[in-house]
Inverse folding.
């Protein structure tokens, strides 16, 4: 039997409409995925009262220019939101820089933000969950991040959410104060982290997340999420995560920049719960984490093999070029 939850029941915590968090959506050259993301977002209860900012990165080369143009033509037709603002890059800056710059710009102006990429399909209750979470934990210094996705496994609990050190970036939210600590400095990070830190960062070595820092160090990858996680980790922050996901990733088909060889099969059923029970005792839920660790361990070897193969291909390619 699950333990009695340490919770506070929220029957209705709808934030004031003028305080709804703006939505930042990052798109590139995937028209079908972008359409699915927008169609689902338009069906959200709070879409018509929410501002939507769409960041469109420039084409890497002439081969993808037509696809980028298709996406840009489509996003200019989008309605169903309080306001739609499109920010287009003339040059390609990459997903990491696009997200870092875009999130910083919007969250500094509005104080809070909800972030999506162009392959995330949301539940009709996604925006409600995000805004209520942002409102409920706004003055809680220990909470740094709201996740919309959870692992596709059964968790034995009566709660609606749990607190975890690890973030998920498939639909997420945060506040200006927390994001102001964000820093992408690989050398500094590697100097600051001890072996014990790395072990805990890797969820007690059940999942190798530190490898992303190494890949960035040697220019084999350019990501942002691991640095946001490291920022939260260094400050002992917690992440609010739903027991049942409010988002589904449809980009695990090889079309995404960082999901070309997926190990997660995201065939989940979306959360359609209207009223959420929030936890007032803000600390990591060890019982939930212990249920998650076996799932993380099953993916560990798969990820490790993919990393070795990727590094081997890149090293051979570099040696060939030289």
């Amino acid at each position: 039997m699950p333990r009695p939850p340490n919770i506070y029941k929220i029957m209705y915590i709808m934030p004031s409409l003028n305080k709804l968090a703006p939505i930042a959506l990052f798109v590139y050259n995937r028209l079908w995925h972008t359409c699915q993301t927008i169609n689902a977002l338009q069906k959200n209860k709070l879409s018509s009262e929410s501002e939507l900012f769409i960041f469109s990165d420039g084409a890497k080369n002439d081969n993808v220019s037509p696809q980028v143009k298709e996406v840009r033509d489509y996003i200019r037709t989008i309605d169903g939101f309080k306001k739609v603002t499109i920010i287009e890059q003339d040059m390609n800056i990459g997903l990491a820089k696009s997200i870092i710059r875009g999130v910083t710009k919007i969250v500094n102006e509005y104080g809070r933000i909800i972030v999506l990429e162009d392959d995330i399909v949301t539940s009709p209750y996604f925006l409600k969950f995000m805004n209520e979470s942002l409102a409920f934990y706004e003055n809680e210094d220990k909470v740094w991040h709201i996740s919309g996705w959870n692992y596709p496994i059964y968790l034995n609990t009566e709660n609606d959410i749990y607190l975890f050190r690890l973030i998920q970036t498939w639909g997420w939210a945060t506040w200006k104060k927390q994001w102001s600590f964000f820093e992408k400095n690989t050398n500094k990070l590697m100097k600051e982290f001890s072996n014990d830190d790395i072990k805990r960062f890797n969820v007690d070595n059940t999942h190798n997340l530190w490898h992303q820092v190494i890949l960035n160090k040697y220019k084999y990858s350019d990501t942002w999420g691991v640095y946001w996680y490291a920022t939260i980790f260094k400050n002992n922050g917690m992440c609010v995560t739903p027991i049942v996901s409010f988002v589904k990733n449809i980009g695990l088909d090889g079309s995404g920049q960082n999901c070309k060889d997926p190990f997660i099969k995201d065939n989940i059923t979306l959360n359609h719960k209207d009223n959420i029970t929030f936890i007032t005792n803000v600390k990591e839920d060890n019982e939930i984490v212990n249920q998650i660790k076996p799932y993380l361990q099953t993916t560990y070897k798969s990820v490790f093999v993919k990393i070795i193969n990727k590094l081997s291909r890149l090293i051979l390619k570099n040696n060939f070029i030289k």
About this structure: The first helix runs from residue 31 to 42.
